[in-house]
Specification:
The chain is an alpha+beta fold. The chain has helices at residues 12-21, 110-119, 167-175, 209-218, and strands at residues 26-28, 39-40, 45-47, 49-54, 63-68, 95-98, 104-107, 123-126, 145-152, 182-185, 199-202, 221-224, 229-235, 240-245, 249-256, 265-267, 273-277, 284-291, 296-298, 302-303. The termini are far apart.
């Protein structure tokens, strides 16, 4: 979420209260290029956050990367940028390119952003790959991401051109061996319909920064706009994946690398469970839930295989 500290329309206090009153347990304020601070009371946690951006879609692909949960200062890539023409001498050097104002702007290498976030004790999340019109292969050389946004509320209409869901990327990435964690975020700017639509549900033993961050690093989370996963069980001997979910779920879709799966789409109409028998060629499975209102939930992909 963004506030008046960058390009959001509400100040931090107003923005925080909207999410607290909506029943969220924790949030991250991710203003552009401004690292927030940790704050917690008995029922609400604000994780330090920031959104770094790099690339201009001409000389370099566009990458927006969230830093979440840092416990020390993060490198400021822009004010501390090397001077133009400096002998950087490594493959992760950034670029100086012209802007619409005629001034040249520094674009750090996305891997350098990821490493700086991790060095500061945080996790790095690739923001809205569909909004950024990324090619799937533009992620392959990046390492150390905790995941990416499979859903980004403000990337949908009327705020942006309908690129709120990015799930197809997960199939391409997983087919090529990259099992990427799936986050759902609002990326709230306007607070006029895009707020409190998405969330990342975390399985952690306590509502505390350390517990939440440990769960995020381990992948103990799923993404949702409403429906709830209760459990996912994979039995490799039987070749069976079983999901249990909230009673509002109407349909379950099992996605894999196989273009012609058997019974991958299931209408469960509130029964709360569905199963999928993996195909011989399947190497990963991920699951999408949808409720009566069409709201979805997504789990991160996980490896399967009869061998």
């Amino acid at each position: 979420m963004h506030t008046t500290l960058s390009d959001g329309v509400l100040d931090p206090v107003e923005a925080i209260n909207i999410y607290r009153e909506a029943g969220y347990d924790f949030i991250a304020i991710t203003d552009h290029r401004k690292v927030g601070h940790l704050w917690q009371d008995d029922s609400f946690l604000i994780l330090p956050g920031v959104e770094w951006d790099t690339g201009d879609a001409i000389h370099m692909a566009v990458y927006h990367i969230l830093g979440i949960g840092m416990d020390r200062e993060t490198v400021d890539f822009y004010h501390g940028a090397p001077y133009e023409g400096a002998p950087l001498g490594n493959a992760r050097a950034g670029l100086w390119v012209g802007s619409r104002t005629g001034r040249k702007r520094y674009h750090p290498h996305p891997q350098a952003v990821i490493e700086a976030i991790r060095a500061a004790g945080g996790i790095a999340i690739l923001a809205h790959p569909a909004w950024s019109v990324m090619s799937p292969e533009e992620l392959y050389d990046l390492h150390g991401l905790a995941g990416a946004e499979i859903f980004n509320s403000v990337s949908g209409v009327p705020f942006n051109p309908g690129r709120d869901e990015a799930s197809y990327y997960w199939d391409i990435w997983a087919k090529n061996g990259r099992l990427i964690g799936a986050f759902a975020n609002d990326d709230t700017h306007y607070y006029s319909g895009e707020q409190t639509k998405a969330f990342t549900m975390v399985n952690a033993p306590a509502l505390h920064r350390d517990a939440i961050m440990e769960a995020l690093r381990k992948g103990n989370f799923y993404a949702s706009c409403g429906p709830r996963f209760h459990s996912i069980d994979y039995d490799p001997e039987e070749g069976l994946v079983t999901v249990k979910c909230s009673k509002d779920v109407q349909t379950v879709v099992f996605k894999s690398n196989t273009p012609w799966p058997d019974d991958a789409f299931r209408e469960i109409n509130g029964s709360g469970a569905a199963s999928y028998r993996i195909m011989q060629a399947d190497r990963f499975v991920r699951i999408e839930l949808a409720d009566r209102q069409g709201r979805k939930a997504w789990c991160s992909p996980f490896a399967v295989g009869r061998r």
